[in-house]
Amino acid sequence: MSIETATQYVERSLVAVSTKAIKFHIDEADKVVYSTSPSSLLPAVHGVLQVIPEQGTCAQCGHEMAAVPTDQVPLFHQADVLPVQVHKKVCSSCRRETCFDGGEVSILNMGSFLMHHSLLRDYMLHFLFSGTSIHNYFRVWKQRMQDIGSNTTQLTYYKFRMGWYAFLGLLDLEGGVCLPHLPGKPRSYCDGWHHPGLPPEVPAGPTSSTTSSTNGSRKISIYSFITLLYRYTFSFLLNSGC
Question: Which of 58, 69, 133, 192 has a CA between 20 and 30 Å from the CA of residue 176?
């Protein structure tokens, strides 16, 4: 499978309901929401968490919007799996509907399941600082959940991968990313890791300049970072024959 074919495959698979951008660097104001367990942050009815769109009035006609329950789906968190009742908002006049996005409470809505940003960011940081593959991280997370008695059967590797691609598609990398250079390691992607099958150098691009600092770190451009993440995740598709 070519890179172009893999790109089209991933674009067709990005079925996330969420559309809000996800910041790479978490703002101070958002850290409380991000770090608070959903079971403490969200209201619950009979042990089932409730998520409802924030919008109060219809953007089209200005009338009030009412919450209507849709599906009960699992929320996959870095440290737990939780049942959630998803709601949509429906305009009382024109019947316009608004779906739950989730970005305001650090949740990615994938329609048939929800993923907390903490789980996706945890994999992202494992990948950036140690080169962990998606499959290996998924296996470790599944084992951790089994150890605490959480049911993970509803999250397959395919769904996890699609959630990761959707997360990447919404990730806002404005300002670039600073990562340390590892002593004795070749300077390649992310200043330290070169993965099999990928070029040994950061590809040139419109904004691919780098800057050095006294602490041995360098700043990789938005273009290079996106290329790194997408090409590495594509490597699974290229090698699997999907």
Answer: 133
**Token reading at 177:** 């990313």
Query: How confident is the chain (242 residues) per 10-residue block, as mean pLDDT?
Result: 48 72 88 94 96 89 92 95 96 91 96 96 88 90 93 91 88 57 40 36 36 36 54 47 38
Helix (H, G, I), strand (E, B) or coil at 112: coil
Predicted TM-score (pTM) of this structure: 0.71
Distance between CA 117 and CA 124 in Å, rounded? 10
* Spatial distance between the Cα atoms of 51 and 68, rounded to a whole number of angstroms: 11
Q: Residue 101 corresponds to which tokens in the numbers above?
A: 């996005």
How many Cα neighbours within 13 Å face the side chain of 70? Answer: 18
22 within 8 A of 116, measured Cβ to Cβ: no
Query: At 46, which amino acid appears?
Result: H
